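Design a sequence for this backbone.
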């Protein structure tokens, strides 16, 4: 039997006061975001719930019910929220990075001033697509981005959504460019920047691939690249994004705008059932395995309070030593 060596890890957030999965099962997850508990579809929760249906309904402020098109291409994820208890349509959660928690601990103990560190404050809201504006499993990527962003880096976040990864890089005090094709989502990310007491992110509403091609022509180079592409999407001028067809081209184009030294790349994939090793091979083929480039890959998971582990996305990362 031939064996190949790979650096694979399974990662999940820890010590996050404002987020937990209380239970999961029967195609749903019961999550607490700050003071509010949501019951949402989770196609990967193939097992049974640990708590009873009555306990779920008692705990939840709201339950998402998929509409007729749920799961169908083009109409997927559309549905409605049934309100069980009063809750606002907008609320806030905080994420404090490991370094920040450690410095709070030592400042409380030794009376020294606390460092700013990795700190995000995010506005959440109930959308008709079952999303709330944050993907909590991504916290491991935020930590990695923050700890691999060195002084003087320029970081580019593509398919950047409400901006948590952009903010994580910004917390390291560097230049950050945030690209997403949806203006409302970019405005939401701007709001999160202000809430997190950060400023000066470069906001771009554009098709991600078109933007990267333009940066190649302009000769612009970045130290850090972050990509979290969806299965399907659209640029602002109707440019079609299809993961299966365009992902490798996108990565090859990205390899032309990443600096040879002092660089990192994070590729996150949450659709099409892609595996961590697939992400790893893609990244290695696009960015090359020359000396000094380290690759890791793995799965981002969340664990409910009954220890049932839900794998939610896969990642591959490259960094220069
Ligand atoms: C699910 S999100 C990624 C999640 C995000 N990285 C996070 O963890 O918060 C995918 C994003 O890609 C954006 N998008 C889709 N097609 C795009 C395109 N062609 N160019 C740029 N952004 C696109 C969507 O607007 C959406 O915000």
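Sequence:
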């Amino acid at each position: 039997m031939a064996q190949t060596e790979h650096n694979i890890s399974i990662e999940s957030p820890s010590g996050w006061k404002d987020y937990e999965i209380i239970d999961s099962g029967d195609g749903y997850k019961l999550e607490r975001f700050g003071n509010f508990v949501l019951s949402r579809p989770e196609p990967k929760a193939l097992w049974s719930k640990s708590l009873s249906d009555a306990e779920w309904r008692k705990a939840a402020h709201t339950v998402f019910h998929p509409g007729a098109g749920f799961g169908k291409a083009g109409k997927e994820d559309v549905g409605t929220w049934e309100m069980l208890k009063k809750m606002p349509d907008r609320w806030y959660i905080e994420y404090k990075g490991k370094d920040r928690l450690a410095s709070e601990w030592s400042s409380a103990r030794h009376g020294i001033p606390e460092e700013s560190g990795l700190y995000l404050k995010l506005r959440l809201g109930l959308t008709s697509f079952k999303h709330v504006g944050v993907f909590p499993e991504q916290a491991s990527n935020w930590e990695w981005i923050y700890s691999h962003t060195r002084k003087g880096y320029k970081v580019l976040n593509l398919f950047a959504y409400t901006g948590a990864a952009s903010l994580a890089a910004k917390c390291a005090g560097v230049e950050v460019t945030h690209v997403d094709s949806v203006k409302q989502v970019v405005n939401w990310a701007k709001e999160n920047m202000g809430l997190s007491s950060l400023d000066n992110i470069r906001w771009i509403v554009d098709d991600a691939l078109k933007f990267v091609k333009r940066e190649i022509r302009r000769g612009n180079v970045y130290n850090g690249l972050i990509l979290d592409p969806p299965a399907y999407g659209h640029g602002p001028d109707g440019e079609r994004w299809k993961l299966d067809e365009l992902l490798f081209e996108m990565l090859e184009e990205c390899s032309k705008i990443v600096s040879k030294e002092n660089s990192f790349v994070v590729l996150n994939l949450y659709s099409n059932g892609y595996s961590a090793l697939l992400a790893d091979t893609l990244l290695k083929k696009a960015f090359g395995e020359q000396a000094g480039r380290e690759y890791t890959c793995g799965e981002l998971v969340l664990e409910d309070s009954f220890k049932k582990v839900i794998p939610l996305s896969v990642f591959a990362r490259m960094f220069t030593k």
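The chain has one domain: 8-320.
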